[in-house]
Automatic annotation (TrEMBL):
Family: Belongs to the D-isomer specific 2-hydroxyacid dehydrogenase family.
Annotated organism of origin: Bosea lupini
Keyword vocabulary terms for this entry: NAD, Oxidoreductase
Protein name, per record: D-3-phosphoglycerate dehydrogenase
Highest rank taxon of the organism: Bacteria
Domain D-isomer specific 2-hydroxyacid dehydrogenase NAD-binding: 110-278
Pfam families: 2-Hacid_dh (PF00389), 2-Hacid_dh_C (PF02826)
Oxidoreductase among keywords: yes
């Protein structure tokens, strides 16, 4: 089966070439810019599409008639592809998991620490010529509530337990050995000094932290989101930041990315923002590349090639 990697970036091409020695695969790699409208032609005659980040609209996917496999460099393929349409076209969608659990959890912990000590606001004050000390919060002994205990949530629990936080968590099903005490969502919202989101985005979790749940939080809570922007009602978040219901929001993800130029989060004084970089370290990128190559190798196995 012929495979094409449609959007290999400069940070990945060297890792891709190095890892090739360990895998029996045949892949054509595109490193050049392209318009999404070019994809049907680019994928003509290819059975496998490897996609790092390119969103494929329905009308474009519907014209990629040779595809039988779609391999995504991530977990939530629904964010870039219409899964129902792919199924109707007979395209099997493959995703990877757990490639960057530690990487993302470390950013979440870093954002939490930065928010607690008001690092971003003080940085901007000093860069602007000022010199103002802002009082911080000592986290040891405080309670952090983790919403979701997948791989990233469990890593966050481990890190926070090491800091000395009282770690509690809410998850739809019990998780053993997670460095976190299981509590109800209501208790987590009402008692946590820090809340960190670690849910997957789907129809059930979209807008999970809405105005009502934000109102149920402990006043002045520190909120961390490195999962998906659409888990939060951003309008309610902005209002809560303005009122002080949320003391500080540390965010790596947003409903619309890039964050629009005049979005109120860009000028809010009590936020720390990063550009959806939680997954991006060399270690996690190596993991991604090798997991994707393993999927392609399984598809292109001698048995499959002879079919």
């Amino acid at each position: 089966m012929r495979a094409k990697y449609i959007d290999c970036g400069p940070n990945q091409i060297a890792l891709w070439r190095t890892a090739l020695a360990d895998f029996d695969i045949e892949v054509d790699v595109n490193t050049e810019p392209f318009s999404v409208e070019d994809l049907p032609g680019m994928l003509d005659g290819y059975d496998i599409c490897i996609d790092d980040h390119t969103k494929i609209p329905q009308e474009v996917l519907s014209r990629c008639t040779d595809l039988r496999h779609f391999v995504y460099f991530g977990t939530g393929a629904a964010s870039i592809l219409d899964l129902a349409l792919a199924g109707q076209m007979g395209i099997e969608v493959h995703t990877i998991r757990n490639y960057g659990d530690t990487t993302v959890a470390e950013l979440a912990a870093g954002l939490m620490l930065g928010a607690a000590r008001q690092i971003a606001p003080q940085h901007h004050i000093i860069r602007g010529g000022g010199w103002t000390k802002l009082q911080g919060i000592e986290l040891r002994g405080r309670r952090i509530g983790l919403i979701g205990l997948g791989g990233i949530g469990r890593e966050m629990a481990r890190i926070c337990a090491g800091i000395g936080l009282d770690v509690v968590a809410w998850n739809r099903s019990p998780i053993a050995d997670a460095h976190a005490a299981s509590v109800s969502l209501d208790e987590l919202l009402a008692t946590s000094d820090v809340i960190s989101l670690h849910l997957a985005l789907n129809d059930d979790t979209r807008g999970f932290l809405d105005a009502d749940r934000i109102a149920a939080m402990k006043r002045g809570v520190l909120l961390v989101n490195t999962a998906r922007g659409a888990l939060l009602d951003e309008a309610a978040l902005v209002g809560a930041l303005e009122s002080g219901q949320i003391g500080h929001a540390a965010l790596d993800v947003f409903e619309t990315e890039p964050l629009p130029e005049h979005h109120p989060l860009r000028t809010a004084p009590n936020v720390t923002l990063t550009a959806h970089c939680g997954f991006w370290t060399e270690a996690s990128t190596i993991n991604q590349v090798r997991l994707v190559m393993g999927i392609v190798e399984a598809i292109q196995s001698p048995l499959q090639r002879s079919a």
